[in-house]
Amino acid sequence: MKLINASLLILTLAAPALTQSCSQMSPDVTSPAGNIQLSFSVHDGRPFYMVRSDGEVVIDTSYVGISMKNGQIGRNTEIVGYNTSSADTVWETVWGEEQFIRDHYNQLRVNLREKGDNGPIEYAMVFRVYDDGLGFRYEIPAQAGLDSITILDELTEFNIASNPETWGIDWKNAYYEALYHPRNLAELDTASTPVTMKVSDSLYIALHEAALTDYASLNVHPTTPGSTRLKAFLTPWSTGEKVFASVPLNTPWRTLTITKTPAQLMLSRIMLNLNEPCALEDVSWIEPGRYIGIWWGMHLRDYTWLAGPKHGATTENTRRYIDFAADHGYQGVLVEGWNKGWEGYNRGVGDEFSFTEPYPDYDLEGLAEYARSKGVRLIAHHETCADAAHYEAQMDSAFALCERLGINAAKTGYVGQLIDRRERHGSQYGVRHYRKVIEHAAKHHVMIDNHEPVMPTGLQRTYPNLMTQEGVRGQEWDAWSADGGNPPEHTVTIPFTRGLAGPMDFTPGTFNYTNHANPATRPRTTIAKQLALALVLYSPLQMSSDKIENYEGHPGLEFISSCPTTWAETIIPEAEIGRYVTMARKDRNSDDWYLASITGKDGHELSLPLDFLEAGAKYKARVFADGKDAHYDTNPYPLDVYDLDVDNRSVLNLQLAPGGGAAVIIKKL
Ligand code: NOJ
């Protein structure tokens, strides 16, 4: 990622005067366009912030502070000075939903002193105010008498000035694989972020965090039951503490995205902007792309991970998948169950796994060579059953093996309620482990697809080999969930909730809904929606989920096998949380556009002006649309494929079936 241009203006001032005997205020800071306004004050020793959007208070008096073993900040604080600054830069992504991202904000840094029972503590609050929201963090510099910090509680509040419709999931859900049920904010229990709120038809707020590298993940809960004043609740260690840190300490950024439309929530890049720039010097080996996998068969119980009569990861089967990938333009083949140790998987035991030794019926070296000869990469699979320490002991040799065999991506997995039987995935312990894996993988030129992760916070800007993560109730639930599969509104909700945290490895692309093991469970979508999900649910490594025999000769294969996974530009002409999303993306490597629309349980009429196309240019659009009488529940299979001549004055008219979708390839002629 390159910095394209930079401008910075800094103004430093001494402590503001006390306005009354017990209040101090720093100057308000507005966003570059002036629509978002941040105020910060200290009253009776307690620091707080407020946020206005177009003059209206959206975040009311919200106190900040941190409770530590050796004292508390935010109880007896005074402002000792402040400075304001501005930046307007553009950086280039290695991959992503757009090639260039503008980072344009006004910043307020307030230097504070906590009187403290055991002596003063210096700290600062730093706010970056954007036109679509803000981020802020605590900075505790190195200082005499404060070497290490044990955080017992982060006291940050988000006092929402209304009782909006809210989407969030219970923080106890170990891997965030849950359905989002909208409710009023006052009814929210403790929820992991992102938490998404609809205040009105023209005001949306999403609360999350950025740059979680060595801290505990953020959850929020009402300060008292029924209140809309939320407070941070950090995922604790098993011993109850939240964070062990040394100074200087910069916390992750707390982000509040504040927009007029739900589409703008999805297009906000505050989280990425608040992460550190790329830490890798050479990124030439990082290759976004599409892959298939020996995978769905296991979830349907047609294959086993374990070696035996139904073993999926055999040499012969993998060769079939490699051939198919080569014939249909897929870059990779994921093979699960290739390595020794799956005997323990059903018992939840990960310490029997070897990440370097294949089962005897899997010729790892020969297959890697065969794949290379056909221009395809094997993708490694490292399921750990959450035995992270066992994995850490082997990961360097595992990644070195990948590097030697030309395997440039690994899917990691942490099935197990607690990491190393003790700590939560979102705890500081988990956060440290996941980051270590990314860093070690990068040394060996291996990209990571992290399943059962901590909720993403934009680290892919710093480590662009962190390609994609699960942390979502994905397509696999359509194979075995007791509730019959993901309901149609799920996939029109997650783009506005979990999707705000970054790429999702949802793995759409199932074409055959036969399920012998669980006949009542299957994707609750039409086939056209399966195609459209491959574009809407962004993932730079995107797996088409189905078994290859279900793709052979299918007209929908053309879309999912050719749709790019890195873009020059993304636009979202229409979107409504839980109802529909329509998105168009311009390919980063050609002048072609790809368009997709998905709907929830109700049908949706699409009438879309193609005015984003280049004026004067001619295009051929290949449309993959719901066929006659298609319906996610009663008739999921009808798919129509046809061509249209279009230009930037054309209007695309399509009727999406209930639970349906549409996908369109628009090629410039
Ligand atoms: C759960 C993962 O999400 C899934 O993709 C994988 O197949 C299994 N664990 C086994 O690792």
Helix content: 10-25%
Indicate the structural class. mainly beta
Quantity of strands, as a count: 40
Largest sheet properties: 21 strands, antiparallel
First-residue to last-residue Cα separation: 31 Å
What does this structure look like?
This protein has 669 residues and is mainly β. It is 14% helix and 38% strand. Helix 4 (315-328) packs parallel to helix 5. The longest helix is centred in the middle third of the chain and has 18 residues, at 388-405. It is globular, with a radius of gyration of 25 Å. Mean pLDDT is 96; it is low at 1-9. Residues 295, 336, 383, 413, 415, 451, 470, 476 line the site of 1-deoxynojirimycin.
Question: Can you give keywords for this protein?
Answer:
mainly beta; 669 residues; binds 1-deoxynojirimycin; globular; disordered N terminus; 14% helix
Q: Would you spell out the secondary-structure blueprint of this structure?
A:
Elements: E1 3-5, E2 8-14, E3 18-20, E4 23-25, E5 29-30, E6 36-43, E7 46-53, E8 56-63, E9 66-68, E10 71-73, E11 77-92, E12 100-114, E13 121-130, E14 133-140, E15 148-154, E16 157-160, E17 165-170, E18 183-184, E19 191-200, E20 203-210, E21 218-222, E22 229-234, E23 243-246, E24 249-250, E25 253-259, H1 262-267, H2 270-273, E26 289-294, H3 296-299, H4 315-328, E27 332-335, H5 364-373, E28 377-383, H6 388-405, E29 409-413, H7 428-443, E30 447-450, E31 466-469, H8 477-480, H9 527-536, E32 541-544, H10 557-562, E33 567-576, E34 580-587, E35 593-599, E36 604-609, E37 619-626, E38 639-646, E39 651-656, E40 661-668
Parallel strand pairs: 26-27, 26-32, 27-28, 28-29, 29-30, 30-31
Antiparallel strand pairs: 1-11, 2-11, 3-4, 4-6, 5-6, 6-7, 7-8, 8-16, 9-10, 9-15, 11-12, 12-13, 13-14, 14-24, 14-25, 15-23, 16-22, 17-18, 17-19, 19-20, 19-21, 20-25, 21-22, 33-34, 34-35, 35-40, 36-39, 37-38, 37-40
Helix pairs in contact: 4-5, 6-7
Bound molecules: 1-deoxynojirimycin.
